[in-house]
Specification:
four-stranded antiparallel β-sheet; mainly beta; 11 strands
């Protein structure tokens, strides 16, 4: 089992920054990759950023140049640095872990990010 706990969400003005953290515990050795997803009202959940065990990353086009995913292996923690935030970034942000066996996916509880104009 893998347990994910997010922190760092909140209310920020447009143009501001937030740093989200996701701490993983449990069967950490089974994790292949981790990422951040978000879901806005009336929208499907979408991938924001993803990082693999070798450090390879990808970011959604909508956040490239503004958001950066990173990890601290010693702390079993993944971060999402969000700069130049826009109102359209408002969503619940979920930490995600891809694991080697069933159920293959674990999710955090979500953290609300609200960007005001």
């Amino acid at each position: 089992q893998v347990h994910l706990v997010e922190s760092g969400g909140g209310l920020v003005q447009a143009g501001g920054s937030l740093r989200l953290s996701c701490a993983a515990s449990g069967s950490i050795f089974t994790i292949n990759a981790m990422g951040w997803y978000r879901q806005a009202p009336g929208k499907l959940r979408e991938l924001v950023a993803h990082i693999t065990t070798d450090g390879s990353t990808n970011h959604a086009d909508s956040v490239k140049g503004r958001f950066t995913i990173s990890r601290d292996n010693a702390k079993n923690t993944v971060y999402l640095q969000m700069n130049s935030l826009k109102p359209e970034d408002t969503a619940v942000y979920y930490c995600h872990a891809e694991v080697q066996r069933v159920p293959y996916d674990y999710w955090g509880q979500g953290t609300q990010v609200t960007v005001s104009s």
